Amino acid sequence: MSNYKMGFETAEAVFSDRSGSAPPVNQPWAPVIITREQIDAEVERLAALDAPANGRRQSLIAHPNALPWAAGLAPGIQVTLCVLRPGERTSAFRHNATDVNFCIRGSGKALAGGREIAFGRYDTWNTPSFTTQYRINDGDDLQVCLHYSNAALLQFMQVYIAEEDAPVEEAPVEAHHDDDPRRKSPFGVFDIGDGAALMPYELLINPPSVHSPALYWPWERVRAELAKLEELGQDYVGRRLYLLYNPMTGRTNGTTPNFFATITIRPPNIVDRPHRHVSAAINYYFHGTGRSSVAGNVYEWKAGDLMLSAPGWAVHNHASYGEPVYELTIQDQPLNIAMESLLWQESMKEAPALLGAQTGFQTNRVAGN
Question: Higher-confidence residue: 364 or 25?
């Protein structure tokens, strides 16, 4: 098998008669907690290994229901635990997935989207698709990062493309002249009635490009803004969080086109209202203790735990105990908005809304505060 020639076994499609049948019932993945102790033990195991050729000591954190070739902690979210010893670096790498990176120990530098980012503990940055990335540990402690990507979804689709020893300098893209008649349809896009239109091939394969930058959210800057949300008081009915927003995602409200990353502050003894959404949620708790109620089941967690806290469309809520809680949440909300599939029920007393296609929800927070 090569890039250009593959051998296929003979395959034959089958008919499956579903006449009068209801659609299959969803089988949501169970919530799962990876404890701080389990993560710490795996960090030490990885750190004790000889450095691999590509420099990447890493372990996938996979749900037991995950397919072996599409190992996600949620069906469309892959989480990788990455470790570097002091003085080490990874080789250059790129893939057609988009990434969110979160440092949970140590510090270092990362190449992402053509820029080198110096990061520390609890800092977050994104890596755009098919841009070269590497990490360097120039500190005195182990560097430990959680790496979130949509690789599991691409692997399930059998379209995940990765390159080792990727070029550090991005190759220039050949420019085409718009007035070249060989590259331009004489017809363009035109209406055929009732709002429907036809688009020629030349435009189909050349959609408007949107610059996808690598962005950096330093924890100290984010924490200062979260402190203002903590002061809203017990009467506030919304969740005290900020989206680490990437403006290129536009209306889909993402950190990458696939995920949002939010950082939440939960004051002591706060209980969220039960709600649910089609998007899956994975939480990393890095301060405090609390519990999550998911579809009638209660799970307790503490700082340093990682949790699939909300399987898609499972009713859930979270509560903090006697000290503030900080958490990073990754959800595949932007993907679902783009697919027009993001049903969201902010309160179980209200009807669901199809976010991105219908008007969403409001809190009782005064505008501008």
Answer: 25
For the chain, the first-to-last Cα distance in angstroms comes to 59
- Report the 10 Å Cβ neighbour count for 251: 10
pLDDT of 22-33, one tens digit each? Answer: 999 999 999 999
In this structure, the strands spanning 343-345 and 276-277 are antiparallel
Whether residue 53 lies inside any domain: the answer is yes
CATH number at residue 291: 2.60.120.10
pTM: 0.93
Full residue range of the structural domain in which residue 153 is found: 32-164
Q: In this structure, are 223 and 151 located in the same domain?
A: no
When divided into structural domains, the chain yields a total of 2
Of 207-211, 316-320, 336-340, 360-364, the one with minimum mean pLDDT is: 360-364
Same structural domain for residues 150 and 238? no
Let me know if 278 is exposed, middle or buried by CB neighbors in 10 A (0-12, 13-18, 19+).
Answer: buried
**Long-range Cβ contacts of 33-36 (<8 Å, 24+ apart):** 33/299, 33/301, 33/305, 33/306, 33/307, 34/61, 34/305, 34/306, 34/307, 35/304, 35/305, 36/302, 36/303, 36/304, 36/305
Is residue 232 assigned to a domain? yes
Based on the domain organization, do 47 and 117 belong to the same domain? yes
Backbone phi, then psi, for 108, in 5-degree steps? 160, -160
